[in-house]
Design a protein that fits this description.
Length: 371
C-alpha cells in the first residue's frame, strides 16, 4: 500500500461481462455541477475502455420533494441496494427550511443500506492549501473512521409541550456493542494497511460514562487482536486541540457519530477546506455511497465556482471500493496534479471554473490510468 492509503476493503469485482452499475444522486445546489465532473471522468474512462460502467441517475432532491412531496420514491432503497455503488452530490435548499428531504434521503440511505462506516481521508496536497504555519503539509495524512448509524444521530428522542415555556426536548444516544465493535475493527484493519499502523480512539468517556465504557472496553478487546497496530486514546476536546497543534500525531482516528462529524470537518480545513474533502459511507462488501462532504452551497449554484475535486476524489474511492484500486490511485494522482498545476477554483485560491478543473483532472486521469 502507498503511504496515506485510505482504501477500505474493496467490494467484490462485478461479474465478468457485467458493467459496474453506479447510482447517481446529484441533489441540490452545486451538487449537480460537481457530480457532473465525476460522471464525466467515469465516461472518459469508459470511452477509453479502461472501465465498464453504467450510470443510473436519480432525481432525488428538493425539486422533486417540492413538486411531489416525495423524497425517496417507492422501491428507491431496493434500487440502490441492487447497484454496485452510489455517487452522491449534496442536499439542501432554502425552500425546504426544515431539511426534511435531506434527512429522509441521506439518513435513509445510511440506515436502509446499513452504511455503518464513514471514512474521511485527510491529506494536504500542497503547502498553498495548508493553514498551519508550524506543520508541513506532508505531515497531514490521516483518516477519520466514524460510526455512521448510531449515537445521537440514530433518530431516537422526542419533545413535550412544544412551543411553551415548559418545553422539553430529548435526543437519545443509542450505542450497541455490535455497532461499536464493527467500526473499531474496520479502523484497525485500515491502520494495518497503512505505514504507521496506529489507531486513536476519540470519545468523551469522562462525561458519557456508560457509552464511554462500552467504547473503551470494545476498543481494548479489538486492539488485542492487532498486536502490530499501536492504540491510544484521547478525549474529543483534546483531540480537537491536537488536530490544530500537531495533526501529524494522528494516523487513523476512530470515534462515534457526533464527534466524528465535527472532527472531520475541522480536519477538512487542514487539506484546504470542504471542497477538497472526499468521503465514503461504507458497508464493506456491499453497495456503498461516496460523496464530497461540502454542502449544497445554493449561492454558488450556476456560477462555475464550485470545487469539483472532492467529488472527483470521492469517485476515485468508489472505483477502489468496486475492485479497481489502480483507477483509484490514478484519480488521486490526477487530483494532486491539478493542485500542483494551479488548476483550482476560488475557494482554494485559484481562478479556474468547475468545468476547467474537471477537464484538467480528466486529462491527467487518462494519462495515469493508461500508464
Amino acid at each position: 500500500m502507498a503511504p496515506g492509503d485510505a482504501s477500505p476493503q474493496p467490494k467484490q469485482p462485478t461479474a465478468a461481462g457485467r458493467p459496474l452499475r453506479v447510482a447517481v444522486i446529484p441533489g441540490d445546489g452545486v451538487g449537480p455541477e460537481v457530480v457532473a465532473e465525476a460522471v464525466a471522468a467515469g465516461i472518459a474512462l469508459r470511452e477509453a475502455s479502461l472501465v465498464d460502467l453504467d450510470f443510473v441517475e436519480l432525481d432525488w432532491g428538493a425539486e422533486r420533494f417540492l413538486r411531489e412531496g416525495t423524497a425517496v420514491p417507492e422501491g428507491g432503497f431496493e434500487l440502490l441496494r441492487a447497484c454496485d455503488a452510489i455517487l452522491f452530490g449534496a442536499l439542501g435548499d432554502p425552500r425546504v427550511s426544515d431539511h426534511e428531504h435531506a434527512r429522509r434521503i441521506l439518513l435513509g440511505i445510511r440506515r436502509h443500506l446499513d452504511l455503518y462506516l464513514n471514512l474521511r481521508p485527510v491529506r494536504c496536497l500542497a503547502e498553498r492549501l495548508n493553514p498551519l504555519r508550524r506543520t508541513p503539509c506532508a505531515a497531514i495524512d490521516l483518516c477519520i473512521v466514524r460510526e455512521n448509524t448510531e449515537g445521537l444521530y440514530c433518530g431516537a428522542g422526542g419533545a413535550l409541550h412544544e412551543g411553551t415555556a415548559d418545553e422539553v426536548a430529548l435526543e437519545d444516544m443509542v450505542v450497541t456493542r455490535r455497532g461499536v465493535e464493527r467500526v473499531i475493527r474496520a479502523a484497525f484493519e485500515l491502520a494495518q494497511r497503512r505505514p504507521r499502523r496506529a489507531v486513536t480512539l476519540v470519545d468523551k468517556s469522562n462525561a458519557l460514562r456508560h457509552v464511554g465504557a462500552l467504547w473503551q472496553r470494545t476498543f481494548g478487546d479489538v486492539a488485542r487482536e492487532f498486536p502490530a497496530v499501536s492504540a491510544d486514546h484521547l478525549y474529543v476536546d483534546t483531540a480537537a486541540m491536537w488536530l490544530v497543534l500537531d495533526p501529524g500525531r494522528f494516523d487513523v482516528v476512530v470515534t462515534g457519530n457526533l464527534f466524528g462529524d465535527i472532527l472531520s470537518d475541522l480536519a477538512a480545513a487542514l487539506q484546504g477546506g470542504l471542497g477538497m474533502a472526499p468521503s465514503a459511507n461504507l458497508h464493506p462488501g456491499r453497495a456503498s455511497m461516496f460523496e464530497p462532504v461540502h454542502g449544497s452551497a445554493p449561492e454558488l449554484a450556476g456560477t462555475g465556482k464550485a470545487n469539483p475535486l472532492a467529488a472527483l476524489a470521492s469517485f476515485g474511492m468508489l472505483l477502489g471500493h468496486a475492485g479497481r484500486p489502480e483507477l483509484e490511485a490514478a484519480m488521486a494522482r490526477s487530483v494532486a496534479a491539478a493542485v500542483d498545476s494551479g488548476a483550482l477554483t476560488p475557494d482554494v485560491g485559484g481562478t479556474a471554473t468547475t468545468a476547467e478543473v474537471g477537464a484538467t483532472v480528466r486529462a491527467r486521469l487518462l494519462e495515469f490510468a493508461r500508464a
